[in-house]
């Protein structure tokens, strides 16, 4: 089952979005330029080999199906039967009343979009425009912590130089080779056992950038000519908050060699002897303030040119002065440029791809999430790092003469300096509010498969048990989000796997001793039932048959003057859609560090990997007031306890089951 990086702010927290938001945005302007209504389709299309076949559009589920699934989901979260019965009454009222009207509107929207008779409002599918804005572009808090994600890489291969300039050069060249292959149309499309996945979001990988605007942002792409003519383009290199533009063209419209790129990077190291103004930190402020600062910066032609160079760059290379040590320091350096403040401005947080190299040779990646989920960048980073580790890596042929890297300088006034100071204070408050812990278990998927259990389901049950132990026995479980990709559909992104179910609750209560006494044999049976139900829900979500996107769409179609249906304010419904546990899994053998921030103030972000044979990797984030370290310890305890439960059944060295 292919997972996707979790949505940073799920639908339940889109509290300020009104049904008419997008209609207003069609006539809104950013502080500097109009936001094109069709901005999503202005990026240059990308071809693959073999070509991506036509994929089905995202379905509109029957209202009755979603209502039945919602009732089942809420039953597992109830405090008592009366609470659940009241929620069911409101769901029935909705299904028999205004819900029918909203369902008809949704079906008409999708039908007109499929026929191309709606002016492009639902061109990709009924959800796409709403989701881009509701989940990302209209979100107004900082993208740092709240939207962005990170990967921390394994050390440089032992047969290669480990100094930072060489490591940076290989990352840049390898990423540009991936870019070239993509624009040349020779990359194979992503696929899972069910078939080929939608590749549309790859057009937003290189040569593009998010742009701040009011009341919503958008993204711009400059890939057209580079993609059409396979030009290497340029990379922006940041060092000590200063910006260098480096052409990657060797003069023959081919990519610079590793040696050439390293020469250029060494030039930056040698010339960045003093700090520049921390302009990059402005892009880490809340989006409304950043939009105003962006507009003011853009009034200077010099700044406007620099902004264009940033936004049109293939990607960013951030050369940080930090030397992160342990896994937490390393993770936080990749996640939000560390704790010291030295490199907070050494980023442009709106770029989708930022490669980070530290002065001790460690390296990582920071991604902006708004137009592209994590699975494409996992493939990108995996490909880049695999290629570099290959002794036959294509380093290219050196060029004898190169133009020096061009430093681009900002033209700043006192108002800009004041804005930087304010943004720095806000940034410090944000990242110092965050806690992080990390754990790897003593076993991995090889052991779990001996027990005939899905490793992903196993990890999800560990999370449920660990969180339950933070509260008195019998406390109802909390809303839990696991991301499933819906890229089997054209322009699909994600759907929610609602991990909590009656089966998981019954198993957790058995493990915590709530209610009747349960023996080990029954505990294992309950666990397997919970995991089987989880697999079933994951399959439904991957087939775009979850409940959350459908409910989001129905709510979005309320018209001005129509009363909000009672179900949307129901306490149990709201609890079930508040992601106290926001979880997601990817896998790469190159990412010992990976994660993002929690999505609600009293919640946790749980990034995990189950692909290793010998360990499961967990990173837990939250606000500092939450019991972060204890939660991590409870995950570790649960991991060993459940293993012991199954070890009692499966002898050591038992045969592996094929899943």
TrEMBL record:
It comes from the Eukaryota. GO terms for molecular function: acyltransferase activity. Residues 16-36 are annotated as: Disordered. SUPFAM superfamilies: CoA-dependent acyltransferases. Pfam families: Carn_acyltransf. Residues 58-636 form the Choline/carnitine acyltransferase domain. Transmembrane segments: none annotated. The active site is at 369 (proton acceptor). Belongs to the carnitine/choline acetyltransferase family. This is Acyltransferase ChoActase/COT/CPT. It comes from Calocera cornea HHB12733.
